[in-house]
Write a structure and sequence with these properties.
By secondary structure, this protein is an all-alpha fold. The chain contains four helices and no strands. Helix content is 87%, strand content 0%. The radius of gyration is 27 Å and the shape is elongated.
Length: 110
Amino acid sequence: MRWALYLISVIDNVRALLAMGGALGFITALVIGIAIKVETTDEIPKQLLPCAYVALFCMFISTFIPSSKSIAMIYIVPKVIESEVVAEDLPELYTLAKEAMEEYIKNENN
């Protein structure tokens, strides 16, 4: 469970790193390719294509990694809701809060 909480806390950084790294890699490959093409009027080197593909893949993957809020909603919230503490104490707390509100409203009207 501790590792899951740690991974949830750093997942946004991983998403940002993949997206920014992919974008920077793609832009770098594009600029280098254009510079080589302008300098030599030859074709863009084939070695830059894998770099561009990997960069695009990183950006693509970063869109499918859920945010830490989404992971918390998927993983942690159901465990909290299904816990015995919530199941036993929540109805009692609701009743106490309702009674306190009714008493507060009654005192305000008097």
